[in-house]
Amino acid sequence: MMVTHDVHAAIRGNRILYLEDGQIKGEIRLPIYAQEQERERQEQLAQWLSALGW
User: Mind listing the pLDDT tens digit for each residue in 5-35?
Assistant: First the structure.
């Protein structure tokens, strides 16, 4: 488990939870990390976070 505000660190996770005021506000599951898919994962995570208002 890792807690971070760094998107570059977060994209290495398979299950990412968005917490706000101690409550889970969203969850995304990604396939196992592969460096060659880093840009795609980053874009997917950015879109998800944007939809959550981050």
Answer: 999 999 999 999 999 999 999 999 999 999 9
